[in-house]
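User: For documentation purposes, I need each entry recorded in a consistent format: the amino acid sequence on its own, followed directly by the corresponding structure tokens. There are two entries in this batch. Please keep commentary to a minimum and don't merge the entries.

Assistant: Recorded as requested. Entry 1:
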Amino acid sequence: MNNSVIGLDIAKNIFHMYTFGEKKSKPVKKKLKRAELLIFFANYPVSLIGIEACGGAHHWARELTKQGHEVILLNARYVKGFVVGNKNDFNDAAAIFDAVTLPNKRTVSIKTIEQQDIQLVHRIREGLVGKRTALVNQVRGLLSERGIVIPKGIKKVRVELPLILEDSDNDLTDLSREMFAEQYEKLVALDEEIKQQDRRISRLCNSNQLSQRFLDVPGIGAITATIIASDIGAGKSYQSSRDYAASLGIVPRQHSSGDNQVYLGISSEVTAIFVRC
């Protein structure tokens, strides 16, 4: 382990550093601008740097690792328990410093550019799916106000909306018919964009050896295989499958005492987090 340990609270433009000097008596606090960060650490002794896993953390972890530093990304929920006093940037950096020095810390593996590329595709696709769902719900709601009810489901809207637009006997005005036609065109366009991302995910899956191995598991398709591969990477950060499940928060609640180990169910909220992953 490096003699120098640093807690680094990152942000968009201003970064806060917390460490101790050679005498270990008083903490050293320093504020760094974005453009100064890598220059500062390039001339700093090789150190163990703790960073909370948040937006931009993987980028800075890769860059600081290139300079020879040992970088550890910490789970944000884990770090939260070490904050002392009111929340501010230097207190956050101090909490990271305290958390990274413990042997049983909860870490997050540093993602490569390739892993983040896969996640990029999935997040864009997720956004498109969300837009499509909102559009379909809006169309169904607006039609119901005019006495026209479409059953739940995107497939129902795809089939019935064109028929409604062609039906001259319903109460749709020329203006509403025109606007619903525009919404249908948007739905068709979103469908095509999502299919484009699906094809891209399929190509990524075929070119990734780890994703291909996941396809052998019953019920696993290209979407799930690629997102797990992008998250787990080489898997060296996890000693077992239980450790990986715990990193996602997929662990049963416990109500144990003494030698009586009682494991409860996994909440639906936690399960939903895994499904989104």
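Entry 2:
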Amino acid sequence: MKKNVAIIAGGDSGEYEISIGSATVVYKNLDNTKYNPYLIIIKGQDWFYLDKDNEKFIIDKADFSLFIDGSKLLFDVIFNVIHGRPGENGIIQGYFDLLEIPYTSSGLTASALTFNKGFCNKIVACTGTLVAKSIHLFNRELPQAQTILEQLKLPLFVKPANGGSSVATSKVLKNTDLLEAIDLAFSEDDEVLVEEFIEGREISCGVINYLGKMMIFPITEIISKTDFFDYEAKYTEGMADKITPADIPAEVEFDCKAISSDLYQKLNCKGVVRFDYIFNDSAIYFLEVNTIPGLSEMSTIPQQAEHMGISTAELFNMMITNALQ
């Protein structure tokens, strides 16, 4: 019997359109002999399904069901592709935990922790993994630029602590631009991370624990054609090269995969997760973990899976199988 799959997308952050793009790819690639897919849009309190005739059906939040053709439709599993709030920060996970509906992503605690870059960096540093030196700001705190520059050295990256896709992220080269960058980041979030720039090459590693077997994907090197891998470079065709497998030293590849496997387990991740790093002649530095990585045609994870011999459709089937187990 085919399973009813709710592909949830949208959300309440600057990654809304990216999420819709990922969800469309998931919808097109799900095996229709195994699954009945429904693309569910979530935006604030507006949760709904649009059928092929563009008729809108409202989700009953009491049990996350739909009323279609005179009968109630319940879902067997949730395919979570909401990048950002509320799909990546643990809120939607807690809701589905209460309803006892399985989902494809990491759980409440792991999602909440990893989504907040400031808190996540502190935990990752405790595992022995290197992270950039940083300052975590709260509640629209705007300290004197000199106060920050006494602790951190330029260049600096300023970003929302709870955010993704480099939305409202700035690279600061001059102290006179620092407070403006912080104010921009606060326009997206109530917490901001200011961290030192690390010179090096950016790499990315996907991981999934599939039915108890840890699978580490080939590493991708990101070569941005902008000053850094910002929103434009991530989502504008031709603005960045993603080289899979990365042409990197064997010891860097080994260490990157080992760190990713270790962090996946210590952070209690589930489903497909992507870890991002910077490496140079000195060391590998952790940048961030994405528990709801992009799954669109331009995204890194499908590219890595393909080089591992796993088709996009097979990858999505693995994620659903994991969740149902």
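Summary note for entry 2:
The longest strand covers residues 201-210.
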